[in-house]
Amino acid sequence: MKIKLLGKNLEELKQMVKEEGLPGFAAGQIARWLYVRKARSIDEMTDLSKAAREKLSQKYEVGVTPYSLVQESSDGTKKYMFPVSCSHRRALNVSCGPDAEAETLEEGAVEAVMIPDDGRATLCVSSQSGCRMGCRFCMTGRQGFHGNLSAADIISQFIAVDETDELTNAVFMGMGEPLDNYENVMRAIEILTADWGFAWSPKRITVSTIGVLPNLKRFLDESRCHLAVSLHNPFATERLSVMPVQKAWAAEDIISLIRQYDFTGQRRVSFEYTMFAGFNDTKAHADALVRMLRGIECRVNLIRFHRIPDFPYGTSPDVIINNFRQRLNNSGITATVRASRGEDILAACGMLAGKHGGKTS
Questions:
Q1: Are 17 and 30 in contact (CB under 8 A)?
Q2: Cβ–Cβ under 8 Å, residues 218 and 227
Q3: Which is the catalytic residue, given 124, 225, 298, 349?
Q4: Model pLDDT for residues 322-348, shown as the tens digit of each residue
């Protein structure tokens, strides 16, 4: 199996060209082809000598994984499905059938969602195959955990989508818990923000988490990207009933850590709050949320729940959601209702599961 160039940082590329007997400046050339020009093959790297390209091709490949399916929603949202190769599935401890090369890989697929909005094109990327957090209201969490995506797998999502040159923002809110795959997610962010990479500002990137405390502290110390915390209930017992991670990383401890950092400048923190009818949408919940977040410069994103099988709660009525939002706003907590996008193709929050939905483009 060939080694992927995608996902390597500049220092690793410098070490690679040194080992292959190529001039040092070739590392910068390769980085530009990978992350600026977004080459799909080593043959495209035409400012490398033919001999250098032939030598590299014997051992390396670019490593972009083309999408196997794209679906377009009636609202313009597009969901891309990427196969997990059989060899990769073995690495992720996902079994392959006896006819390994011929089998379909939808079961092992990961997804990315492109969301267009007022001149912006945001890519919602996945960081894991499945997820080990087990949130009961999330289709990805119900799959169980199959493994971490590499930095190459993550960056490939940015390059493989049709809108690669139009992307303006990224949210790590797809399949998986980003801070449970910390090293690969941070390597991908390095590539996205480095001068030799995509050269994006960290302000264009938001990382979502349920609050993996040890890695959350690392993220807050080591990154300037925006943070989104999945909260969903201010009461510990109720949160635990739908989010098992509350037992390991309590919401109160997450909030306590966040209070130690400054979010009054360009970096933002937001709290994701999915609205479940009769479960977390009462005045008591709104008031408890205000008490929990008071003093933090933040935003609360209220999310309409997209009903899934075998989950006891439905979606809060719009009037309840709007009253909840107003109660937060009146108490000094900025709250907005997030527009639901891509529900008809199973691309909305909590619905990514590597499955077909809606029409195929």
A1: yes
A2: no
A3: 349
A4: 999 999 999 999 999 987 765 665 555
